[in-house]
Amino acid sequence: MELYEKTVSTTDIYRGAIIYVHSDEVELADGQHSRREVVEHSGGVTVIPVDTDGSVCCVRQFRYPYGETVLETPAGKLEAGEEPLDCAVRELSEETGLTADEWVYLGRFYPSPGYCREILHAYMARGLHSGAAHPDEGELLAVEKYPLDTLVDMAMSGELIDAKSIIAVLKAKRYIEQEEHN
Questions:
Q1: Which residue in 34, 59, 165, 167 could disulfide with 141, CB within 3.0 to 4.6 Å?
Q2: Sheet strands side by side (includes 55-63)
Q3: Phi-psi region of 53 (alpha: psi -120 to 50; beta: other; left: phi over 0)
Q4: Which of the residues 137, 177, 179, 180 is marked catalytic?
Q5: How far is residue 96's CA from residue 131's CA, in Å, rounded to a whole number?
Q6: Do residues 12 and 24 lie in contact, with contact meaning Cβ atoms separated by under 8 Å?
């Protein structure tokens, strides 16, 4: 059986500055009908800036939906028509003040494919240069530095809980290991 779902109708639920939510009636591959609630988001990037000593600049910020501060790799939302790499360069500079000589694309991923169409792109930045951070208005961040191996341990122990950061940390670690073996 071919797996697919065909949209029969769409009902707008909410249009905001960051997300658009709709409810769709779909026809399943077996002919039955069902409902799908979908959150549309422009997508974003996350950057893992790895210094020559293996340390990584992270940011800690308050995340309102959870009511707590969360340690994350620098990240941000794609603007309309913006290329993911351009967004990564912008966000790294805004949040940490860093610029990079080398950018390694670590891939794209769907953070929550059951209901959200957001696509995130992960990059590793190397050849880092310090500068002044210039976060967006209303974006309050604390920059913290950790050894990459410590972040891997934190990801595995559950101390690092942000999914995009976990993915970026583990992919960067694997990329560096493979690079060292070649």
A1: 59
A2: 68-72, 55-63, 142-147
A3: alpha
A4: 137
A5: 8
A6: no
| Cβ within 8 Å of residue 42, ≥6 positions away | 18, 77, 78, 79, 80, 118
- Angstrom distance (rounded) from CA 33 to CA 145: 50
One digit per residue, the tens of pLDDT, for the chain of length 182 reads 789 999 999 999 999 999 999 999 999 999 999 999 999 999 999 999 999 999 999 999 999 999 999 999 999 999 999 999 999 999 999 999 999 999 999 999 999 999 999 999 999 999 999 998 888 888 899 999 999 999 999 999 999 999 999 999 999 999 999 999 98
Strand order across the 75-77 sheet? 75-77, 44-49, 120-129, 99-109
42 burial via Cβ count (<10 Å: 0-12, 13-18, 19+): middle
Is residue 137 annotated as part of the catalytic site, yes or no? yes
* Cβ atoms of 162 and 84 closer than 8 Å: no
